[in-house]
Amino acid sequence: MAIFLSTNAAAQKSPKRDNHATLVSQTKYSWQKLQMPTVAQVSTTWRNPPAEYGPEPYFDMSGAVDQAEVQRDLDAMKALGFRAITPQAGVNLPFEYLSPEYFKFFQMLVAEAKKRDMRVWIVDDIGYPSGFAGGRFTRDKPELCMQTLVVAERIAVEGGSTLHHAVSQDTVAVTAIGENQTTIEVPVIGGTIDWTAPAGKWQVSMVEHHFDTAPTRSGSNPKLATEPRPNTNNVQAKDKSQSLEDYLNPVATQQFLAFTHEQYKKYVGDEFGKTILGFRGDEPDYSVSGLPWTQSFFDRFQQVKGYDIAPYVATFLQPRGTQTTPEQARARADYWDVFSILFADSFFKVQADWCAANHLEYQVHLNHEEAELELTQSEGDFFRDMKSVQVPGIDTTRHQIWTDTISDFPRLASSVSHVYGKPRAFTESFASYKPPADATMARYVLNEQFVRGINLAELMYFPSSNAGGRPRTTLMEQPELATLMPYAGRMSYLMSMGRPTASVALYLPSSSMWLNDRVADTQFVSTERFLSEHQIDFDIVSEDALAKDLVLGKGAFVTMSGNQYRTVILPAVSLISQAVLERLRSFATSGGHVLYLGRTPSLIAGKTILNARTPGPDEFSWATVVPGELSPTPTPSDNPPAQTPLAQVIPPTMLQAILDATPIRDVVLGQPSTAWRILKRRWKDADVYLIFNEGAAASNHTVRFIGRGKKMEVWDPQTGTIAPLRAVKTADGLRVNVTLQGYESRVLVLR
After folding, report:
1. How far apart are the first and last CA of the chain?
2. Could you read off the pLDDT of 38-64 as tens digits, one per residue?
3. Burial (CB count within 10 angstroms: exposed 0-12, middle 13-18, buried 19+), residue 643
4. Which residues, at least 6 apart from 371, have a Cβ–Cβ distance to it below 8 Å?
5. What residues form DSSP beta bridges with 262?
């Protein structure tokens, strides 16, 4: 029986949804679009899915690479089961990176891949983070290098005394800060301060813009090239000798494209959208001690916020542990807000638009997605950064995902894809796992991501055979990889077909985190865990999504992928915008469920966070407010967990409130289990469920599937076989007995 998503009239008329999420059959560039195939169509393709669905190895091209080596390594990777690759220029190459000789070599590599019917993702730099063009910015375009704001000098001044002091031409603000955090903007005339302090003790801070960069790890860095066995992920080899571009300046990103993408286009552009699928970026971020800055920042801030931020910036740069005022904290949050807008528009969107214009996709992941509070202050807002990116991603390179970790952060990438009508989300996995992941553990790590919506896998790493004896990873050497590869490819394909169906939206409190709100961060992660452990399929949504990007219908927010959120959960947020407040009120009064967990926001922002207002006593009377807190969830570390995590402590009233707000559940277990995870997608004439047992013990459950299908099938991605599963018809779906071994997954199709 065909199962169609019913939509309201407003959603059906949405031009955004029509433009961004057209559901198509297999056509040219079909992997770049949401597809709505039938069971019959998928069944004829999934056993040997197209190469575009991966997985692919990260191919480190180091040493004396030549055509014979490329042929040998491509054959070896294809023999392992890879039909796509992600090559990156490495160390000790026989030619200069980005030279004509390099591009002729790459032209040959693409031709050899094409002969083998393999696909190519181009890594956009010779190391990471992306955006230094192998040192070209430092060498050729220093004026477009990354910039920051720092306090260059602090001078103590007693009340009544006069400070005469020359300042640098790089000075952008001079501020006197008093003992109680009172601030006075100190005038600079002719490059000189001539200021008499009022009563009290003051510290005058000179804020300057400096050309400073986050450290880069570059294959063209002589420090790295002299390592006995070069390592593409050797953090110790990172330094500041090759600056990143100014991410907040679109001119700098256009220059990055001119250094890199445009040159690839000259040499291999005829394979764009064919053999070459797109460009792959890596961890662009501001791991700097100062504030991210660009020459136009203050002007842009004035346009967005309507006030001058310069008098405040010195207060943001005070020594760690300094207690700032609430006003200063709100101004700092405004700074992060504008920073995130500039980063998204000037770096990510520029590259994504270029790729789209050239029939390519842009895939990229950020840094430390598992630590969202840190991310908000080095990359701004995950959703804004990824909104334009065709294939949003995450990485798990140092045991962020392992047995006994609680790792729901992959939903960040898949949720962006769901909200904005993108078919895929990717993972970079296993780069620096110590101990390394074998094939069994790799299957677990991939399954934990598949069930959270990731559907394109990049496996680290395959070194070129001319790399001076550097060994392959444990995974690449294991015979068991031969069984993992078809499984991963089929799973990626199945989980890319159709569209998502999640009806619960979990609000990502980035703006609260700009206020350094650790409670909001902790409760967000713990709510992710709660929903996952109660088999509630959900997406994460952002401020922008709720304020403007989702289509608001009757009791539903509709994504560009077509799924409808009937419930929105806000976990202990301290700040929301007036726009979100009004949309949530309309959503709730028309039948939607809104839950504030722990507390309601204490601030409601308009144009600025600085002038955010305090809500009235009945401001949230239309929502359900649930007191209490979920117990904190341990953040994944660089090492495997030492012990099984403690069970989550859930206030009974919170448990019941969330269950009451999610009355229609896709999957209901006969008995509670915190080990099972579920994901659901919809094809044209079937519902598809991925169930994964994240526990070590086998378990059996009677499972009730809500839907209009008449029969259940087991689709086995390992063997490529389809078998019927005995099911009992119920009033609202089917009841099935399911047994899963420890760490086992199962794909079920209700049709």
Report:
1. 6
2. 999 999 999 999 999 999 999 999 999
3. exposed
4. 635
5. none
